[in-house]
Amino acid sequence: MFPRKLKSEREAMKDYDSSCPVAHTLTVKEMSPDDQPRERALKHGCKVLPTADLWAIVLRTGLPGKPITEMCRDLMRSCDNKLFNLERMERGSFMKVKGIGTTKALQIEAVMELIRRYCGETVGNRVKIGCSRDVYDVMRHEIGNLPHEEIWAIYLNRRNEIISKEKMTRGSAVASVFDLKKIIKEALLRDAQGVMLCHNHPSGNTMPSVDDDRITEKLRKGCESMDLRFLDHLIITASGFYSYRDQGRF
Questions:
Q1: Is the pLDDT of residue 117 over 90?
Q2: What is the span of the domain harbouring residue 68?
Q3: Fewer Cβ in 10 A, N or C end of the chain?
Q4: What residues does 234 pair with on adjacent strands?
Q5: 174-231, pLDDT tens digit by residue?
Q6: Residue 134 placed within a domain
Q7: CA-closest candidate to residue 73, choices 28, 129, 29, 30
Q8: 155 and 63 in one domain?
């Protein structure tokens, strides 16, 4: 008899792999109804769902071999499972998650923007401003957690009630352009009696820069020349604020 030919290590591993069951990730349709995000929400309400499953309901479809539930868990892992961090992310960061393209990234942006607008509306457009904390409560959801700078003007009537709040400029992560003429023009168009300036620092540092001091003084003089009350300038972050008036700066 001829000696039996031994299999190579590669052939042996191939036989071993083919004999092992292949791991299979369940699609949403293959899950039991009790495990499907949509069915659980219908039965028990959205409050019982983890955040990733809520995103799965919004984004709806996954990829072959990668169900939407897994994709949304990857999305939440990319922001350390905090919506606070997700709000600061740009569209390109969403699209780094496998399966999230332009359409899904826009859906995520739209939801985050709806959250910001809802938080702004709960305060009301005719809230009365009595102190700097009132201004912070109005604006922190609007700009406190943005990854770029924005300058906003708040216009008030004679009773210090907000007539409107308007975004003046959007800048980069470190700076934005200040437009004095635009701020004054909008105040006159609205027949405002008072003006407040707000901008955010994406760094999280509330301390004013030399440029912040400069635009504060420039706006103070501009308002004075048009018989407008310049009430305050606030630097806003997600965790706090700096008020020029509270610090006795004017």
A1: no
A2: 24-118
A3: N
A4: 198, 243
A5: 667 889 999 999 999 999 999 999 999 999 999 999 999 999 999 999 999 999 999 9
A6: yes
A7: 28
A8: no
